[in-house]
Fold:
Amino acid sequence: APLMKVFGLPGEAAIVLVMGNLVNLYAAIGAMASLDLSLKEIYILAIMLSFCHSLIVETTIAKKIGISAIGVISVRVGLAVVSGIALNLIL
Structure:
């Protein structure tokens, strides 16, 4: 949970990111709806998930067309982390 504080999110929000990355955005939305989140927290989660969602499926597709799987995951997760931290500091 201390890691989630970097993004200005409660520890329970980690389940939203896990569901969004491993399953799909609809699973993340369902998980998000079950939590009592502020508008700021919802916004941060939504932006993070816009960069980084459905990693397994989308990375498999990228790999099939010749793009490095590690590169795709690194860029997408990196953008999600940077945007989450930045939004927490800005908002």
User: Anything to note?
Assistant: The longest helix spans residues 69-90.
